Amino acid sequence: MSDMTHSERSGGLKAWLTSDTPASRFQARAINIWFAWRDLLRNPLAVIGIVIIAALILMAVFAPLIATDPPNRQDLAARLLAPGVDGHLLGTDELGRDIWSRIVYGSRVTLQVVALVALTAPIFGLVVGTVAGTLGGWTDRVLMRITDIFLAFPRLILALAFVAALGPGIVNAIFAIALTAWPPYARVARAETLTVRRADYIAAARLQGAGTLRIITGHIMPMCLSSVIIRVTLDMAGIILTAAGLGFLGLGAQPPLAEWGAMISTGRQYLLSHWWVATMPGLAILIVSLGFNLLGDSLRDVLDPRGGQK
Amino acid sequence: MSVSQGAHDPASAEEEAAIAGTGLLPRIAGRFGKTLFSLFVTLFGLLLVTFAIARLVPLDPALAVVGPRATQAQYEAARKEMGLDQPIPVQFVNYLSDVVRGDFGRSNLTSRPVIDDVRDAFPATLELATLATLLGVLLGVPAGVVSAVNQGRWPDHVLRVVGLLGYSMPVFWLGLIALLIFYGQLGWVGGPGQLDVSYELSYELDVTAYTGSILIDSALSGAWDVFANALTHIALPVFVLGYFSLAYISRMTRSFMLEQLGQEYVTAARVKGVPEGRVIWVHALGNAMVPLITVIALSYAALLEGSVLTETVFAWPGLGLYITQALFAADLNAVLGGTVVIGVAFIVLNLLSDLLYTVVDPRAR
């Protein structure tokens, strides 16, 4: 406690975050995160990635303020206008809808897909991987065999087949992507579990009377988190591309919802005469997944020096 | 394994014999057996999933056959004929035995057996994926080597950008942009489809379908005008798919090469006075090729899958286009049949790369 008061006296939060004598578990963690964050900010590519993702989030949250038009307002008199004409920043589509506004609102769909998949697939994979790793034996063999089976599938084709069965729509597309995205997380989590499950602190927890469930959730899962988080960030670009691919095929978001993949798909018919209709949403996809790739790459360098492709 | 004190421990003696003696073949055979087993388990899982998908569908296949005006008796008869009255496990066994015999049912869209449709469409996909992989290897491996040798200098940075763009770009969008520029604006290549419309008749007349691959067939038939036209059509999809293959293969080549160039045998070769070019391209690359084989096989498998979107963009009559068209016609037999075929190709390629690895690298045995 005296430490805390001392550091607070000599510089507040900053000193508290850089103290080399953390007084609590919470402070130790905060210091770790703070140093990782500082390392990350030293890498210009990571900063570009963070800026892109921050821009995506701001765009989604403040869509009504940023968009110049409602995303679905049609104006048949102003069909297929070139970028810049009549105040349409990126031009208009075949129904006279403002492409810039549709891209801005489309960021909400993209963010929704990313957030839902990022919340479901890794958690499911984490549970499967830690349970398999902790219990071992038959549970491990069966769970890992199932994981391997899903891992051996072509992802897009499997997602296609699921959507074919469940019916097209953004929710089913998210479900199908999540269903094909969890196995790598289970693998990563199991590998991490195997390295810690025989550790003394687990044995100590068990001697204190902790049950298996408590050991998994309280003592093993936290150890797997950083590997899983890196993996999630690296996977986001792939998830965005898969979602856009499903949208392009007409199996994701349904009209008139503004979704980038579906927008490319309609723009395809006007490709040779009105290039901007298909090009602009594609650029949006490219920029956003580039952002996630840049951040994921740098995050791996900072948090996991072993796994880098250096 | 453990510190066994007994001199005559049969288990450990056997193990030692297995480690020290026995030829190469039994060990490869043992690994082959394991691989084969995992192949079967994975295939079983694939079929279980496609079967489950077929059961998930809210459509009643019997009702689809007899139509809404059928009497209850007709409906029951159709159900019985399709085996839908039997318990689910029995239905699954029936499904398995059908698939093993190559029977994926009939496609509603083409009213032909799905297996025939697949047989017609698969060569076109294979042709595309093979040429794209060739392009990826021929350009990607040298690019990766050059960037590893020049680590941190401009060739390395260029390659990093190429790779990052490849990982971040939607393949269907790149296809459309390529069409826009090279077909629409510059007119350098043919448009969507395998041939110009004006060549389709001469294809019918002059070309015998030996293999199903349009380039090979027209060359074998001596129809060089058709061959030339087909070449202008396949060029763009091959370059688009090849770019993604190149991005992946060059990145991996770079990291494998960096690993090899740091090894002592490289220093030893340099000290001995081996020319630098030989050290890089023969000594180091030779060793880097071992893990690269797996990477190349994986990228080939990924291209088979990636062809779904590319074929849609280029109206390329392969398996991907077949599956997507079937999807919109609610033709589930065709979708699942196509899924199983691509899945099987994917799984087999994965395992083949695993096996090839053992053959090429003595340390992995």
TrEMBL record, chain B:
Pfam families: BPD_transp_1, BPD_transp_1_N. It is a multi-pass membrane protein. Gene3D superfamilies: MetI-like. Keywords: Cell membrane, Membrane, Transmembrane, Transmembrane helix, Transport. It comes from the Bacteria. Its main location: membrane. It is found in: Cell membrane. The chain crosses the membrane at residues 36-57, 128-149, 161-183, 230-249, 280-303, 334-360. Residues 122-357 form the ABC transmembrane type-1 domain. InterPro entries: BPD_transp_1_N, MetI-like, MetI-like_sf. The keyword Transmembrane helix applies. Belongs to the binding-protein-dependent transport system permease family. This is ABC transporter permease.
